[in-house]
Amino acid sequence: MLLKLALLGVLFMSLSAIAQEAKNGPTPRPATISGKVIDQGRLLIGEADSHWFVSNFDLLKPFQGEQVTVQYRVAADGRGIRILSVIKAPSETRYTSNLGDAAFRR
Questions:
Q1: Span of 12-26, 28-42, 62-76, 80-94 with lowest mean pLDDT
Q2: How many structural domains comprise the chain?
Q3: CATH of the domain at 39
Q4: Per-residue b or e along 40-52, where b marks 16 or more CB atoms closer than 10 Å to that residue's CB
């Protein structure tokens, strides 16, 4: 009897989860964008001057003024984005030649 009751409970929970997913639709996949962080992480400026308002800006605060690549989803209120992960864009490296190097000695 207890086993039947447990199986019935599991069946009910799985059916309610399926019904809720069908009602809300499938969860959208995360998207990726690159841009510069401004306004203490509240705003991300992407290519072509697209502005993205960030709902969980505390993740971007350490990257103020830097180029980053973020994975995001559209926020529940539809007015901004919710950051899932942040990767700092590699900085531009400048190479210089030193005339004292072995490659220039002859």
A1: 12-26
A2: 1
A3: 2.40.50
A4: ebbbbeeeeeeeb
